């Protein structure tokens, strides 16, 4: 019988943790990368305004993403890892996972002026190597294949399919009408 998840307060505040999962596996001490750079998974330290600014106005994958959505994604993430130079947020990523079988690496970035120092490698390493112990990790990228290949990521197997909902549902539309429209589009 599965036990309901519970909220755990602490350094990585508001993590959802199954009762059988060791809490300490989800919390890392801040890791010094040298030259004033640090990795930290304390979600309370994340500069949400800076993360939103990058995602919504500079990234190709999250262009126009509303602040409220970025906030919700941070709060609902299995884990977030921030990259800091001193007290300034210069990178970020988040993991979406069920904690046992599947994990998705999302919103990975390092600000352009801080690239070329191996910081992206360390950010991904922290998220994946010290992330949830799962059977399969996935991600989407248009331009960072070489970075992710260092960690064993490659093309998906022939068993993977994807449904891109962006063209099917207007996020601002009435939910009932959107579902009815989607059913018509999908032949339901």
What does this structure look like?
The protein has two domains: 6-155, Aminopeptidase (3-Layer(aba) Sandwich); 158-188, no CATH class. The protein is globular and about 55 Å long. The chain contains five helices and eight strands; from the N terminus they run ββββααβββαβαα. The protein is α+β, with helices and mostly antiparallel strands. The chain has a six-stranded mixed sheet with strand order 3-4-5-6-7-8, sandwiched between helices. Strands 1-2 form a two-stranded antiparallel sheet. The protein has helices spanning 48-57, 67-76, 119-129, 145-149, 175-185, and strands at 6-8, 15-17, 31-34, 37-40, 79-85, 88-97, 102-110, 136-138.
Chain-wise SSE layout:
Blueprint: E1 6-8, E2 15-17, E3 31-34, E4 37-40, H1 48-57, H2 67-76, E5 79-85, E6 88-97, E7 102-110, H3 119-129, E8 136-138, H4 145-149, H5 175-185
Parallel strand pairs: 7-8
Antiparallel strand pairs: 1-2, 3-4, 4-5, 5-6, 6-7
Helix pairs in contact: 1-2
Descriptive keywords:
188 residues, Aminopeptidase, six-stranded mixed β-sheet, 5 helices, 25% helix
What is the quaternary state of this protein? single chain
CATH-defined fold name of the largest domain: Aminopeptidase
Largest sheet: 6 strands, mixed
Number of strands: 8
| Tally of distinct domains | 2
H/E topology pattern:
EEEEHHEEEHEHH
Q: By helix and strand content, what is the structural category?
A: alpha+beta
Residue ranges: pLDDT <50 for 5 or more in a row? 1-25
Query: Which CATH class of the largest domain?
Result: Alpha Beta
Strand fraction: 15-25%
- Inertia-based shape: globular
Mean pLDDT: 84
From the N-terminal CA to the C-terminal CA, the straight-line distance is 34 Å
Give the strand line-up of the largest sheet. 3-4-5-6-7-8
Instruction: Please state the second-level CATH architecture of the largest domain.
Output: 3-Layer(aba) Sandwich
CATH H-level superfamily of the largest domain: Gcn5-related N-acetyltransferase (GNAT)
- Rg, rounded, reads 18 Å
Number of helices: 5
